[in-house]
Amino acid sequence: MIEPHVPAPPGSPPSWGSPARLPVRPGAGRFLVLAGAFVCAACGLVYELELVALASYLIGDSVTQASVVLSVMVFAMGIGSLAAKRLSCRAAAGFAAVEAALALVGGCSAMALYAVFAWTGDWGGLWANGPRVLLVTFSLIIGLLIGTEVPLLMELIQRIRRQDAGGAVADLFAADYVGALVGGLAFPFLLLPWLGQLTGALLTGTVNALVGGALVLGLFRRDLTRRARWLLVVANVTVIGVLAAAAVLVDDFERAARHAMYGDDVRVALRTGVQEVVLTGGTPGRPLNLFLDGRLRVGGVDEGRYHEALVHPAMDGPHARVLVLGGADGLAAREVLRHPGVRRVDVVALDAGVVRLARQDPALAALNAHAFDDPRVHLTTADAFQLLRGARAAYDVVVSDLPDPGITASTKLYSQEFYGLTRQVLTDGGRLVVHGGPVSARPHVFWTVETTIRAAGLRTVPYRVAGPDRTGLGPGAARAPQDWGFVLATAGGSVPRLRVDGPTAPRLGTLTQAGLEADARAAARMRVAGLRASTLVHPRY
């Protein structure tokens, strides 16, 4: 039985042990608190996923980024739960302050991370400072604030109507978990495709501030002093104003960030369903560069050297039927089509948006010599792994022009199982060539690729060519590799030979037989021994 209490003087909060003086019935008030918990949980999970997604886009290796963000955030939530005990006597004011801070920090986190990435350069060697520290800092702060929510909401529910602790915890956690489900589904299916990373985070912060402020000011305003109510109003209006101003300026911010990252000649910037695609240059005097998720994929200054080294050594031999895995830009297909005797080229690309760009952008279409318009080229938009599982055709040559294995989404495409599937579609004596990433910068990764191909029963010869001349590449040049590493393999009984000067070979621009052999010897000197093959269940990149 709840004992009656003496009303507090006007303008001062009541004794905390007494029931809250609500403007609605207790049942309605309790429902509104649980609804607020639902919305706040949804917003909190969106902040988590936004940090994971943005870090994965900018840094790569989504498993590592998810592990760092989520582990730091869960740890911080525990600390926040302990810290909430100091706010329990002022749960309403504390909850309102926490939600205003969470809305500001979470809503602005994407812009801050993207800004630091754009204006400080590559993240590669900055684990101890710069953007990586900012990522951990945001994870820590957001986790601390989220961790204080549930204890404070528990106090608010008990202020409305005292009930057994188990029932109150069950109700609150149910609202919290269902809200997390809604936030987790809304992020990839609504916020990310419709609003993008930056605007989606800003909108989430706005909703967070509105709900937190409205819940306290609407239900528990009598628990606050007049000064506290005014401070709460000013804080929430300020937070919402900052988020709204950022949303208005977000397009200008993105343009400025892109110019900082890619230079002033950005011609195309779009997000497909797979990745962010940026084209720079492609005008007279400006070499064309293609960036995918911030990584230089095609450098117009030296792209010919990369694609010549990728394709032509594998074409020494029968090559009537060729399979290109990746190569959505059409440049590998261009090199394949230079060889006489090619009757069919099957290109399997994951991103239809890049394929459309390769067909329709005048500069990129000119660079790939309109390869996709050749009747011998047949395009398929699919996951390369899944396509090979059901493939029945036999190919003389398979060209694997895929993203680096260090990117988590590509790891399965550099596994022993994947190369086993590739071997099944090769003819007797057919050749496979794989781009394995830079040799000098990441020898462990490259030689793991070579080891994995051998584990699939293929005979290999590794080789490399020097990377692009960074002169003229602009701000994106920092993300260009120092060299490119390749592995040529065959299902036959002998080690494949490196040859680009056969009697029917086309005239090449920069790649020579002598240079190729010298680079292969240089690669062999960098071999890392004792590595094990990478598999689907035990990736080693």
Automatic annotation (TrEMBL):
Subcellular localization is given as: Cell membrane
What are the alphabetically sorted keywords of the record? Cell membrane, Membrane, Polyamine biosynthesis, Spermidine biosynthesis, Transferase, Transmembrane, Transmembrane helix
Q: Which residues form a coiled coil?
A: none
Q: Which HAMAP family match?
A: Spermidine_synth
Which proteins does it associate with, and in what oligomeric form?
Homodimer or homotetramer.
Catalytic residues as annotated in Swiss-Prot or TrEMBL: D401
**EC primary class:** transferase
Organism encoding this protein: Streptomyces lacrimifluminis
Question: What residues form the membrane-spanning segments?
Answer: 31-59, 65-84, 96-121, 133-157, 169-192, 198-218, 230-250
A GO molecular-function term, please?
Answer: thermospermine synthase activity
Q: Which residues bind S-methyl-5'-thioadenosine?
A: Q275, D383, A384
Q: What protein am I looking at?
A: Polyamine aminopropyltransferase
Query: Residue limits of the PABS domain?
Result: 247-482
Gene Ontology cellular component list: plasma membrane
Q: Which domain of life is it from?
A: Bacteria
